[in-house]
Amino acid sequence: MGNAECRQNTGRSCSEDDSPALSFDENFPNYNETTINRGTIVSPKPQLKFHSICGTNIVLLRDGRVAKRRESFCKGLAFSNRPIGIGEIVCIRLCEVGNNWSGVMRFGVTNVDPASFRDIELPKFACPDLTSKGGYWAKSLAERFSVQGLILHFFINDSGEMHYGVNGVHKGLFLSGINVNSPLWTIVDIYGNSVAVEFVGMDFLCF
Predict the structure, then answer these.
(1) Considering the domain 57-199, what is its CATH architecture?
(2) Cα angle at 178 between 197 and 167, to 5 degrees?
(3) Contact present, 126 and 187 (Cβ < 8 Å)
(4) Per the record, where are the segments of Polar residues compositional bias (predicted)?
């Protein structure tokens, strides 16, 4: 049986009170406030949202910018609705973290268009169900960073490396060996104690 497209709800589910004002240190590529989740200065793109193809426990909120797992601890796969650009800074806020389950969010990228799963059942997990196949790169966020309100940000360089940081501070290399010769969609596995995440937009970022 194929995947049903995710339900959408325009209500606001995530409080921003716990999130820091966001700025970036010198380790990140050149950017300005118009490029966060919107491509690069050279190649601007529409605001990142979540793809309508997602795990069976996911519901989309805020016009697709928030993905929330409704129940259980798995079947929480979500993808970006468009490929991300090389050098584009992707910002994801952990807007709801629970304590009913163990394990933390996994994230990464894929060369596989999420639309290819329209008539195919999505697996339960990103790791290892997807990462054991070609064209997928993902792993877990460190458990110490699984904190409500934290902002995760990352970018892919033209050498196929993903660098990441939290709350504006560079943390280093996260993934390597990524194929940058084909389009790349973001993967987020809302797993374990992670409950809801958001692609932040210009109405939230503070510089």
Answers:
(1) Sandwich (2.60)
(2) 35
(3) yes
(4) 1-13
